[in-house]
Amino acid sequence: MPFNNLCNRQQHEPGRKHFALLIDPDNLDEASCLNLLSLSETHQVDFFFVGGSLITTDNQAAIIKLIKENSSIPVILFPSNSLHIDKQADGILLLSLISGRNPDFLIGQHVLSAPILRASHLQVYPTGYMLVETGRQTTASYMSGTTPIPYDKPAIAACTAMAGELLGLRYIYLDGGSGAMQPISADMIKAVRQSVDVPVIVGGGINTAAKAKAALEAGADVIVVGNHIEKNPGFLAEVSHTVSSYNLALDVHR
Predict the structure, then answer these.
(1) Of 8, 109, 140, 181, which one has the fewest beta carbons inside 10 Å?
(2) Considering the entire predicted model, what is its pTM?
(3) What is the CATH number of the domain that holds 219?
(4) Which PANTHER family does the record match to this protein (predicted)?
């Protein structure tokens, strides 16, 4: 399913949930990537997000090429800066870090990226990116030099998301960061969901089926899992089953 259908009310069924697998190119070799691709096809992953807050190898292009050659699942870049644009992908989350006050990640990297993106075939998804405090400092908060939204302040998150939507951003991404000690609270997800009409993406700290279900029930349109699946590939099937069961129940009640 094309990612932009989430914003298209004519093509996207309201209430339907989706599962994105976040792939960090630094953490995969060819064999482990092929294994994840096979599992993802079997268990109906909707999207691959490829990238990370700190890319220390030149593995990204090879990983994207491997995905495109072995899977039909859309590949969407999840970049930390303008250096991580790869035209092999299908699209890019153009992340504006609206939870912070660092101008480089609000607009600076976007200025550098604009001519490259305009000349590419990549589908651009303007996204309000919001880091949330989840128990410890993450790579994303450290590298961006920003303070995450406090875990217990859903009103701040809701107003931030609302501002992002009013500025024209078409997606809101709540992220607890890789290796988060706890997932973003249901109260915060619910508050953001109620404050905006655009799709809400939630990631970070989702390492059990119960946590995945809680995020879906609170209002996440897309849940993102990465770090835990890298360590435990079998968890992919659990998340997929959770999303599928939610959508099946949705269909039954219609």
Answers:
(1) 8
(2) 0.95
(3) 3.20.20.390
(4) HEPTAPRENYLGLYCERYL PHOSPHATE SYNTHASE (PTHR40029:SF2), PTHR40029
